[in-house]
Amino acid sequence: MSGFSLLEFIQQIINGLTLGSIYALIAIGYTMVYGIIGMINFAHGEIYMIGAYVGLLVITVLGLLGVDSISLVLLATLAISILVTGSYGWTVERLAYRPLRGSPRLVPLISAIGVSIFLQNYVQLGQGARDVSMQPVLTGGWRFGPEGDFQVYLSYMQVLIAVVTVSFMTGLTLFIGRSRMGRACRACSEDRAMANLLGIDTDRVIALTFVLGAALAAVAGVLVSMYYGLVNPFIGFIAGLKAFTAAVLGGIGSIPGAMLGGVVLGLAESFASAYLQTEYKDVVAFGLLIGVLLVRPTGLLGRPDVEKV
Amino acid sequence: MSLDLAKTTPATGASPLLQVRDLSMRFGGLLAVDGVQFDVLPDQIFAIIGPNGAGKTTVFNCVGGFYRPTTGSVVLDGQPIHHLPSHRIAQCGLVRTFQNVRLFKTMTVVENLLISQHTQLETGLLAGLFKTPRYRRAEAEALDRAAFWLEKVGLLAVANREAGNLAYGQQRRLEIARCMITQPKLLMLDEPAAGLNPQETRDLDRLINELRAGHGVAVLLIEHDMSLVMGISDRILVMEYGRPIATGTPAEIRSNPKVIKAYLGEE
Questions:
Q1: What parts of chain B have a pLDDT lower than 50?
Q2: CB contact (8 A) between residue B66 and residue A194
Q3: Nearest-CA neighbor of B156 among B168, B140, B170?
Q4: Residue B208 near residue B200 (C-beta atoms within 8 A)
Q5: ipTM over 0.85
Q6: Do B128 and A200 count as a contact with CB atoms less than 8 A apart?
Q7: Residue B236 burial (10 A CB sphere; 0-12, 13-18, 19+)
Q8: Is B261:B53 a contact under the CB 8 Å cutoff?
Q9: Number of helices and strands (H, E) in chain B?
Q10: Contact B87 A197 (CB under 8 A)
Q11: Is the pLDDT at A120 greater than 50, yes or no?
């Protein structure tokens, strides 16, 4: 009996980590933008949705062209989706947020909600409001456990999601920690006016932040469209909300926080669906958020807001 | 009150590095600074003094590009800078420190010095991603310069500590090093001696003189510590209620009746 529940427990961890990886990738975009300009980019969920569409489109086209090497499909799809989605991120910042810099905080927030509605409808007009689906690219997996009893299933796709997520997060961490532009990003997130006075073109750093966030959202989008084989223009809303929750849970403004928050949220949802009922997963997810914020208002890894004079 | 222009601008032959003309700054109904003008020559140490609320920091913020002045002009080395964005002003060779130290506190001491070299290191994003030889060389040179300045201000031993964990006097010195590493023409110091003990103030005095002598930088400072100001400055501008009331050498300022009145009140 105990062996049975252990296997099921492991299965939930696997499912939770898969879901958590996706949340974490999207959450980084929220947290980086917040860290630098103190604004919640509510259009970020839609950026992820665009990444998923581009991913699905590229995979379908490659399929029609007869490309069947998985690694080639993956690399090409990631590259194209990152490029296209990154330029959406850049354009949105340029047109909808940069002109509002220096205005009260509420103004860019409203602008972000506007961009979000615009992008949803724009994709709907172009692609239709219905689900778009495709054949799964990568099928199969490993089974562990006794024959005829509950078996842990680990799909190849789940492993792929984990590997891709970990590599991109490592890349981002190295970029932020070691590179010159990364250093400028950290300086801007600590004191943007001072960074500006020292000669850093903060507008460029902000644009870069948006592009990086959009690129990671594109990775999440591609992985999701490969995993579920299904997208529609509205997937950005709930995914964005969950990723935002993950960012706040981990401590908004903190990149490791967003990664941790994503994973915690994914695990919580997965356990809630398994041990309670599927309907309870959102209750548990947002309940967890409220609980953490009551005890630690800055989130798991967030720093208390430094008083800026 | 009218001001004789001939008295506010030094009548020397050298062309000024910084020219501030007819500067005023209005915040809503408050005229915080009115009709300020002065010149700073290359290699000069120029101080602005005055009672609290005289508008010294506002002048500083206008000159440094933190505020956009309501009227007037600021010209650095022949180029008007009062309309430029902050990062362009820094690139023109004017940098400043703040009254309350503004280091990047969560970054290490050496990273603080690398950050301010950012613009001189500009090699593009791709070069950074692929760590081209040129990028590596530029990084190495930046580290060398950082080490040089850390040595100079006596912080080499704490290079890898988080800047926020340094003692206050060390943070002030790091802030000056962070400015100097950009090789500015004009260094602006906002109350550099505030919060320092007498020994640290003497060290600061020596450091500022060394910067001027060894690195050809002009210094514009605001300071309350009269012993520092009188000992170090070539020229002093005295302000009261947002207006300039006197300009001159320390000796002239000390004996100026208007200044004595402003500081000590009238009998």
A1: 1-11
A2: no
A3: B170
A4: no
A5: no
A6: no
A7: buried
A8: no
A9: 11, 10
A10: yes
A11: yes
